[in-house]
Amino acid sequence: MALKLYDLCGRDERLRFSPYCWRVRMALAHKGLEFTTVAWRFLDKKALEFADYDKVPVLCDGDQVVTDSFEIMRYLDKAYPDAPMLGEGASYQRVLLFKYFVERSVTPALFRIIAMDLLAAIHPNDRDYFRKAREARFGCTLEEFHQPEQGKQQLKQVLAPVRDLLRDSAFLDGDAPAGSDYLLFGSMMWAHVVSTQTLVEAGDPVDEWFKRMLSVHGGEASKALTVRDL
């Protein structure tokens, strides 16, 4: 039975922008697994009741239901051990540390760059929910939080070690992409899909890496609809 991924969509059902869903999409492509997606929106909580979960990604593999992007990646490594992504032991601990780095340093910087673009990309029926939830988290309005130039400077600083690594390596995990690449790419792809903002300067090692990531696995990510196409 084909795998099924519940995947966040925006104002156009084809607009898929969740950073966590993109981690999983790339992980599935890494494993060479065929999958279908189910478009899901923020307020469609009932659709996920079967998973006892209220957000995406949710992966269904036959009768197996797995939630949380990183847990899904771990599941895929165990259920489909060819082409491992996360490793074991010390290797796993390092990729786990990188996960926290992406979520707590990279993603917040990106959010400052794209906040209002993201709101515009969301389905109109979901915007009030999204605004209230995020403004409660940030303690300010989205308009106040949206500071693209500040976000770009913040992003440049936090990506400094990544940039240094990519000067000598095609991918974060070496000659081919794996878990660390998908963790960072998910967040960068999130911003790329919903915004036309330039995230990093052309020619920057991170920019070159992102272009390579768009083309891997048969160009899985390059086929994605973005706001540029609407």
Word description of this protein:
Residues 8-84 form the GST N-terminal domain. One of its GO terms (cellular component) is cytoplasm. InterPro entries: Glutathione-S-Trfase_C_sf, Glutathione_S-Trfase_N, GST_Omega/HSP26, GST_UstS-like_C, Thioredoxin-like_sf. The longest helix has 33 residues, at 89-121. The protein is built from 9 helices and 4 strands; from the N terminus they run E-H-E-E-E-H-H-H-H-H-H-H-H. The protein has 230 residues and is α+β, with helices and mostly antiparallel strands. The radius of gyration is 17 Å and the shape is globular. The chain has 2 domains: 3-79, Glutaredoxin (3-Layer(aba) Sandwich), CATH 3.40.30.10; 89-229, Glutathione S-transferase Yfyf (Class Pi), Chain A, domain 2, CATH 1.20.1050. A hairpin with a 2-residue loop joins strand 3 (58-61) and strand 4.
